[in-house]
Amino acid sequence: MDNIYNSVIEALIFSSDDPISSQEIIRVIKGIDGEDIDISNDEVEIAVDELNKRYDEQGISFSVQKIAHGFLFATKPENAKYIGYLSSEKSKRRLSQAALETLAIIAYKQPITKPELENIRGVNADYILSVLLEKNLVTISGRAETVGRPLLYNTTDEFLKYFGLHKITDLPKPREIEDIMKDEDFLEQRQKIMMNAIEEQAQLDFDKEAENQGDNASTTE
């Protein structure tokens, strides 16, 4: 494959909001330059490797990552704690502790039914499942062949994108999770996230109390 396509591949990945697959990249190239263009999935992979090599040599802060069965630009791991700190302050995208726990169970046990999920967590999962479905982090993949044929839940490509994974098997193994939990940077970020969550909840409680007092004042008048 001519190196000219390295630039094309770079441009296609850069312009895509979602992970773009090698098949889609090839489809676009052939759509413009003709079906007789000889380019394969392996050649796209090689082009991505060459791009990443150039980024490393130039000390660029980002690289092309394999995420959700495709390619996407992402910042390098060594910058993760700085970006994580910024992200922890943006509550709109953050999942609650209950949602994360539920999502983790689904990810590791999928496909899983709601009764199985509730048996593991020990609480009703209706609300959390509705939140995860709304965010497209989980999906209904069918019905179990058991009594009542309950719905089966699986994670989605959006889940892979959210957590920066290429495929579900990239999830850390239980032993790896134990090591991560002991990491000082992780503990520091976890503490900051927890403090932010406490402050946000306190503000919500304050706003709710103020609203109730306002309603009471209106009623007495």
Structure, explained:
This protein is mainly α and 221 residues long. The chain folds into 3 domains: 4-76, Arc Repressor Mutant, subunit A (Orthogonal Bundle); 97-170, Winged helix-like DNA-binding domain superfamily/Winged helix DNA-binding domain (Arc Repressor Mutant, subunit A, Orthogonal Bundle); 179-220. It has 10 helices and 5 strands. The chain has helices spanning 4-15, 22-33, 41-57, 80-88, 97-109, 114-121, 126-134, 157-163, 174-182, 184-220; strands at residues 62-67, 70-75, 112-113, 138-143, 151-155.
What is the fold's blueprint, element by element?
Elements: H1 4-15, H2 22-33, H3 41-57, E1 62-67, E2 70-75, H4 80-88, H5 97-109, E3 112-113, H6 114-121, H7 126-134, E4 138-143, E5 151-155, H8 157-163, H9 174-182, H10 184-220
Antiparallel strand pairs: 1-2, 3-5, 4-5
Helix pairs in contact: 1-3, 4-10, 5-7
